[in-house]
């Protein structure tokens, strides 16, 4: 089921003990992410930071770093993602909103990937 501007993606999960990072990618495929949402507990010099980016033809663009970090190891979280033709809206724990441009300008994405140091409890497109 594709993610469209008419619905939302909700992911509930639990970061592993000693987690380094986990990532949610939404886009057209492995080489093209409209949204790269990278939760970094301790990765590549970033500590307790969310990195947002996009990837076109296999190359990442300029990243945005968000320091509002309510994720905790072994504590359940919920992330909700919606988007328009222009931007993504991500609600992280504590209902804090984070936005990122939809540089693809698409209204539908069929590629959704979640991976890293976490256990996924639920994954829903409503």
Automatic annotation (TrEMBL):
InterPro entries: ConA-like_dom_sf, Galectin-like, Galectin_CRD. Keywords: Lectin. PROSITE patterns: GALECTIN. The keyword Repeat does not apply. GO terms for molecular function: carbohydrate binding; laminin binding. GO terms for cellular component: extracellular space. Residues 1-126 form the Galectin domain. This is Galectin.
